[in-house]
Specification:
The protein has 312 residues and is mainly alpha-helical. The protein has 11 helices and 2 strands; from the N terminus they run ααααααααββααα.
Length: 312
Amino acid sequence: YMGSLERIRSTIMVALGWVVLGMIIVQVGFGGYGIMVKKFAQDANVNQLVFSLYRDLFCFPLCVVAAVVLEGKLYLPALHELPLFLALGLTGMLGNQLLYIMGIYDSTPNIASVYQPAIPIWTALFVMLFNVEQRPDMRTVAGWLKVFGILVGTGGAIVIILERPKDDTTAKNMLLGNIFLLGNTACMGVYVVLQKVFIFNRSAKTGVPSHWATLPLHVTAWSYMFGALSMAAASLYYVFGGSVTSTSFDSTTNTTSTSNIFVPPKEVIPPLVYAVFVSSGLCYGLLSWANRLVPSTFVTAFWPLQVVVTVI
């Protein structure tokens, strides 16, 4: 009996170690994404929505192939499950990714990384709201520390938003960037908790077939499909609004050029490849896998590592 108990404990520790390694890889990947976007995509005057659209369009088939190869075969969602995957696509892909790149454009990768520790705060609030995890026990030191951490993180976000540069134009852009990044972190928190509540927690109340709980890559793939569809629908604003062209000024040659926003320049290829294979396919796949195994608050507790990655 003691031997079997020891083997179980050893298996759990090994699995936990793999989860920790996976979450570190995720934060390194996400941290590098902000730098790539700021260095290449913004300098090339790439539209934020169009960049996010191509990211999701290319990532969806990649995730489908990975899901089929690693999880045995292709599983299709039932009709009544589509609203759930739509909600995951709207929060984890459309809201999270689009607001992040908009925030990067109006601020800096360092500021974006500073906001990322808000994700575990949002997650803690949402899991308490959905009763996924126990509320802080105020009779214990751990309970008070959890509440204190939420309050400190919230206060830090408020201070960043209220901090105003001297230049009015810069101040306006920075304020918008801060608001976008706050929305980005909230969307990611909702995405992780929705996964946990309606897919990976095998509750009879969810109505979701239990096989999704063992198919994290399929969950990621179908979420990306709806993320891509949402991005495409949002992109129709430019088509019907007659804003499919953009104008950029080259300070080295003092010339102005006009281009179609749906035809990305070659400078956008490096961040797009990185976004598809690393920050989307790899990182989101690992997130879903870890969210299946451990509490959502544990999964998102690694987000502050992005600050270190970006600074380095």
